[in-house]
Amino acid sequence: MDVSLAWGKGRVDLSIPSGNFAGLVKPRDLSGGDLSGLARALDRPMGRPLEKLCEGRKVCVLIEDDTRTEPHKEIIDSLAGRLRGARQTTFIVATGSHNPTTAGNRRVTEMVVEASSREGLNLAGVYVNDCFSDDFVNLGRTGNGTELNVNRVALDADLYVVGADMKNHYFAGYSNALKDFLPGICNYSTIEANHALALDPRSTFGVHPWHPDPKRRDNPLAKDILEAQRIICGRRPVLVLAALTSHSRLLWSGAGGIKAVTGKGIAAVDELTSFRVPSVSHAVVSPGGYPQDDTLYNAQSALELTKNAVLDGGRVLLLAACAQGIAPNDKAKQNFYDRLTMPLDEVLASIKRRYELYSHKAYKFAELIRKRASIEIYTELGDDVLTKAHMSKADDPQAVMDRWIREDPRCKIMFFDDASKLAVYAE
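Below the sequence we write its predicted structure tokens.
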């Protein structure tokens, strides 16, 4: 059997005997839709249309950064064409703690300027959130104690509009429009306080306060994000254009009020990207190619979202190019990778004693590595980088699979593509 999985900006082709093939898991494509569905979602919103909501108002539009796989140009073009009646429009690239100065974010900024000029918008500016800057206003604390420091520019608005990527998220439950507020437009200390809740085992994928199933709403980190959004927005309305995509295919989209759209989106994510599978001894995992595997930091989430499919003591091959290195910035490298090079028990104990932003990645990785016989990575990173972090480099993914089968001719190997979008549960 032949299997093709995304890697960087290309693909990896593998062959496996049918007797060792346990299945290929990837997002379901039930719609057959293309990106024109975004405009159709705005034509049939859940609530008042954007053209009516924006009339005479100051509008703040939040667009996700270049690490997200949302169709940036199509979202920006769809929104800009309906904002002509706004008194003024401000765009913010909601980076959260990600690097604000990437070439991708510059392209997103250029898309906004071009669309705004074409549609004749009164553009007040395009800003990229920099969580390390001083451009934040303190709005108090959430009930959890998270001190809420919010991008100053975002507060001068009568209406918020969010272009949101929807998918499973390994500790926030789901990526959704709420995350464009926190962490999207908050500063480092606010994000750090919120993300410390990622160490709570209840902060996991498939659980969110707006989940349609009342039994799946107890996620402390997501609850903190929701409260932050309510503090930031107050009584000001929020319209969302949300998209669930896979390899540039639009699987679902929705537009309208933030709660209605997010709830419908969560149901769509569950239907299209959640799977129950038998646990296997071996797995090959692709985060979905660029940008989901641009760094080891980003690629890690694919292992978390698929970990339930692999038995304790099992073996994993991760296909992650990591063309941009280990982590998106020096602070992330320090608190994620540098921590992970310590003995695993020390990694876990030190982070429990004192959480620092980005170290939840090291914590989750350390827990996972302890449960696996091996994690090998087909990557552009060097051998020594992975060896120091208790993993190993795979120079040839086909050779890794062939070795597995030689060692255990009856082994079952499961494949995961676009795994950063999946939620995998064991049968």
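The chain has 13 helices and 20 strands.
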